[in-house]
Write a structure and sequence with these properties.
Largest sheet: 10 strands, mixed
Number of domains: 2
Number of strands: 16
CATH superfamily of the largest domain: Aldolase class I
Radius of gyration: 22 Å
Distance between the termini: 30 Å
């Protein structure tokens, strides 16, 4: 993939934008994302600060063109659509969007938080992709997860989105739930494929510390034995591919399936190492192989922006860099990491190997000035002998078996 575009004789680098909306009606019991409920006053204060953060990039992104925007959370659809419309308007005033290919603009929505007017507002504002957080078609499993909706509510919202004119919809599903059987998972897949969404993300539940689920199902939890066994989890994984493939969905990344031409362009950019800029509370960025994120504290985020918006650029660790996207205008940046060459190599390998396209040996050499085999030759021979990877002249891929045990395989590419 060429991450540059020629515009009137000028090279412009591809840039992806992520906008974080940290609000939800009710935090799900398994969720460890940066999110929570708030009142209208708190929501307004947050978005006012977000607009200022966006405007701070005016004249600082002239070397880039935006080809995708992802509005995530939290539950972005739980706030009034005016906030979302205004956010996109602010972005368009500051950033240059691609014209030869219409930017992919996704918003995450949850059943029970949208109506016809809200969906129409999204569409008029330029949003052309919806991502429904469903997780399962079984009401008892939805209740277990702490979701606020039923499956029938999801079906109503999904049909409404189609009626409004959305023709690019993703549905998030989650397996390895407590008490979940292979049969119940298969039923969920069959229910969803009947709806014919363009994209399906099928993730496995991860029990995260600090969540109610960790207390119940973590290593010391009294209900830890209710989680599916490793054998059932692996069966679920293999059946997911079998069933979705039979309905015309191709797996293009370990957990993502799409109809032809409907791969999520935004997420593919993450796996391909394209620059992305996070806006809003706790959002992460990668610019010029430098990782950083905004503060995780809502009050601090709002106060810093409101207190500094009339000041000149703050002194900060990134100020010496030439790329002005790296300037920390408000002092909200945290967790700044300059990726070493070894870290860049690690990410190139384990992000690329997550995808069906695999990793290119020629691109590896072009970027790092060393052959992949010179670093990983012995490891690749071992993994290929064990049936975990396969290769052709230029590409290296995980096999189906390698994907089944991908966490173990990918960890092999980490340097000591």
């Amino acid at each position: 993939m060429d991450n540059h575009q020629t515009v009137i004789g000028t090279w412009k680098e591809d840039l992806r934008l992520y906008v974080h909306v940290p609000f939800c009606v009710k935090k799900c019991d398994y969720c460890d994302f940066l999110s929570g409920s708030s009142n209208e006053k708190g929501i307004k204060s947050y978005f006012d600060a977000l607009y200022k953060e966006i405007r701070s990039y005016k004249d600082r992104a002239s070397e880039y063109r935006v080809s995708s925007i992802f509005i995530g959370g939290g539950t972005p659809s739980c706030v009034h659509s005016d906030y979302i419309v205004r956010t996109l308007d602010e972005l368009e005033k500051v950033f240059e969007f691609t014209t030869e290919i219409k930017p992919e603009i996704t918003i995450e929505v949850n059943p029970g938080t949208i109506d016809e007017n809200k969906l129409m507002d999204y569409k008029k504002a330029g949003i052309n992709r919806l991502s429904f957080g469903l997780q399962t078609s079984h009401d008892n499993e939805l209740k277990l997860l702490g979701r606020i909706h039923s499956f029938s509510q999801f079906e109503e919202n999904y049909k409404l989105a189609r009626q409004v004119g959305f023709n690019n919809i993703n549905i998030d599903l989650m397996s390895a739930l407590p008490g979940q059987s292979l049969a119940s998972w298969e039923k969920t897949l069959f229910c969803i494929t009947k709806l014919k969404p363009e994209h399906i993300s099928a993730y496995s539940l991860i029990i995260e510390e600090g969540t109610p689920f960790y207390d119940r199902y973590g290593p010391e939890g009294e209900d830890k034995d209710k989680l599916p066994s490793e054998e059932v989890d692996r069966l679920i994984y293999s059946r997911t591919k079998e069933i979705l493939s039979s309905y015309g969905y191709e797996r293009y990344e370990i957990s993502n399936y799409a109809k032809e031409g409907y791969e999520c362009r935004h997420n593919k950019a993450y796996w391909e190492g394209v620059s992305y800029l996070g806006l809003g509370l706790g959002s992460a960025s990668l610019i010029d192989y430098i990782r950083f994120s905004n503060t995780n504290f809502l009050t601090e985020y709002i106060n810093l922006i409101n207190g500094c918006h009339n000041n000149i650029m703050s002194t900060n660790v990134l100020e010496k860099d030439k790329n002005r996207l790296l300037d920390d205008f408000y002092g909200i940046r945290r967790n700044i990491i300059y990726l070493t060459k070894n870290q860049q190599i690690e990410e190139f390998m384990f992000l690329g190997l997550r995808t069906s396209e695999g990793v290119s040996k020629s691109k590896f050499f072009k970027r790092f000035a060393i052959a992949m085999d010179d670093i990983y030759g012995d490891l690749l021979l071992k993994l290929e002998k064990d049936g975990l990877v396969t290769s052709n002249k230029d590409k290296l891929y995980l096999t189906d078996y390698g994907i089944d045990v991908s966490n173990r395989v990918l960890s092999e590419f980490l340097f000591e």
